[in-house]
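Notes to self after the Tuesday call (sharing in case useful).
The group wants a holo model before anyone commits to mutagenesis around the pocket. I volunteered. Ligand is flavin mononucleotide. Logging inputs and output together so the record is complete.
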Amino acid sequence: MTKVLVIYASDYGSTRKMAEAVAEGAVGIPGVEALIRNAEETTAEDMTSSQAIIFGTPVHMGSMDWRVKKLIDTVCSGLWAKDALTGKVGAVFATGGGLGSAGGGAELAMLSLMANLAECGMILVPLPKHTPKYEYGGLHWGPYARTTNLAHEPIGVSEEQLAVAKTHGANVARVAVALAGKLEFQK
Ligand SMILES: Cc1cc2nc3c(=O)[nH]c(=O)nc-3n(C[C@H](O)[C@H](O)[C@H](O)COP(=O)(O)O)c2cc1C
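Result:
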């Protein structure tokens, strides 16, 4: 089986819901199993035993959640030192409440997460613009769910946003299956 690990941080449940949709999309691909893990519970073994790792974060103060960054700076950095993440498939998603064309830092949060994954030597999967419902739940870096309305009231995650997250999970799983056992990086 090809294993897809979906990691998230969440206070109010929206990012967790997106993580569940990503995992649902992944297991729809034959031969794929998914594991959903809270960032604070994720272990090195969870990561090394997975062929793909998808990180989800709420946008906090314009960037990624500290629990996700803590995981990267502790567990991932240890694996980076052993070159244990090179060649794994990586992807990201986010939720946020920010309004305006740039949201409240969603793009920066996703891009900086992707930079962390690139630092680990992972192969990054973006979100194609032709993805169904992209206009409701996407940036080309990955699924993004805005979880407030124009009055700044929380509205949670919509079906369209969850559909985009599901497609992303399936895309990442397809890449992981296609690459399984086929990659060898020069060291
Ligand atoms: C401490 C804190 C800081 C936040 N900062 C931002 C922000 O800078 N930009 C933004 O778009 N949303 C921000 N939000 C809103 C959350 O990103 C949004 O509500 C998100 O969907 C929450 O995810 P969750 O339900 O998984 O906890 C912030 C929320 C909290 C609690």
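Two things stood out.
The chain has a mean pLDDT of 96.
The CA atoms of residues 15 and 159 lie 14 Å apart.
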